[in-house]
Write a structure and sequence with these properties.
This protein has about 280 residues and is α+β, with helices and mostly antiparallel strands. The longest helix is centred in the middle third of the chain and has 181 residues. The protein has a six-stranded antiparallel β-barrel with strand order 1-2-5-4-3-6. The chain is about 70% helix and about 15% strand. It is built from two helices and six strands; from the N terminus they run ααββββββ. It folds into two domains: about 120 residues, no CATH class; about 90 residues, Beta Barrel (Elongation Factor Tu (Ef-tu), domain 3), CATH 2.40.30.20.
């Protein structure tokens, strides 16, 4: 092998090495380019996606902002309506408060008057209660008195009825006695009265009932009163009439009134006695 051949081989070898180096570089450049393009594409896609996301976010945000603005506007309208209603309520409350204050002032004035009136009413009620108690006590006393008077009236009516019956019986006897006295010799009724008045012991009593020409007294046979006893009826030491006994009980007697003083008649409460000395 000659030198030229060797040189050619060396040259070829060097050329191969150079070609390999160049090819390797080209391969690296292409790979790097491909990778760079891939990176750029990825970045572009990422940028597009980011832009799309941003647009979506912006759209969503704009929609949310629009909705929020709409809500704010609605709330503003509601707030204005509420303020107007509150203002009307406040005015109404102010009017009510003013009216209440006026009523309170009026009530305060009326309350003072009512307190004074209440005191007067209480005082009047106290007086009325006292008067009512007095009236009740008076009614009770009147009821007792009426009951007592009713009992007394019943007793008096019974006594009057008994006396009337006695009077009817005694009138006949009086007539008989009068005839006998008129027929008696030497003196008549006046002589009998004088003798009876002188001989009888002094007995005193009180007139308890008067009817027609008869009178009842509160003394009877226990005190010494007898049939035909003659007594003097007097009032304040003044002679009123004579009383001739025609009926006698133990503690009560009935007699006929005769020889009355001019213009005088016996009354309940007058005194009787058998002697004026």
């Amino acid at each position: 092998m000659n030198i030229i051949t060797k040189i050619g081989i060396v040259m070829i070898a060097l050329l191969g090495v150079c070609v390999s180096v160049v090819f390797s570089r080209q391969v690296l450049v292409v790979e790097n380019y491909r990778q760079g393009m891939l990176v750029q594409t990825t970045k572009a896609e990422d940028a597009v996606a980011a832009r799309d996301d941003a647009n979506l976010v912006a759209t969503t945000r704009n929609q949310e902002i629009a909705r929020l603005k709409s809500d704010v506007a609605s709330l503003d309208r509601q707030l204005r309506v509420e303020k107007e209603e509150r203002a009307d309520d406040v005015q109404g409350l102010k009017r009510d408060l003013a009216a209440s204050n006026r009523r309170a002032e009026t009530f305060g004035v009326n309350f003072g008057k009512n307190v004074d009136l209440l005191k007067e009413v209480q005082e009047e009620r106290t007086v009325l209660r006292k008067q009512q108690a007095q009236a009740v006590a008076a009614n009770r006393r009147l009821e007792n008195e009426r009951t007592s008077l009713g009992n007394n009236l019943a007793d008096r009516e019974a006594t009057i009825e008994r006396l009337n019956a006695t009077v009817r019986l005694l009138k006949e006897r009086v007539t008989q006695l009068s005839e006998q006295l008129a027929a008696a010799p030497g003196g008549g009724a006046t002589a009998v009265v004088e003798i009876a008045a002188e001989e009888a012991p002094r007995i005193s009593g009180t007139v308890t009932a008067v009817g027609d020409d008869l009178a009842s007294i509160n003394i009877g046979s226990v005190k010494g009163i007898k049939d035909r006893t003659v007594l003097y009826v007097y009032r304040d030491d003044h002679f009123i009439a004579h009383l001739r006994i025609i009926a006698v009980d133990d503690a009560e007697s009935t007699g006929q009134i005769f020889d009355p003083r001019a213009g005088q008649t016996p009354q309940v409460g007058d005194k009787v006695t058998t002697s004026l000395r």
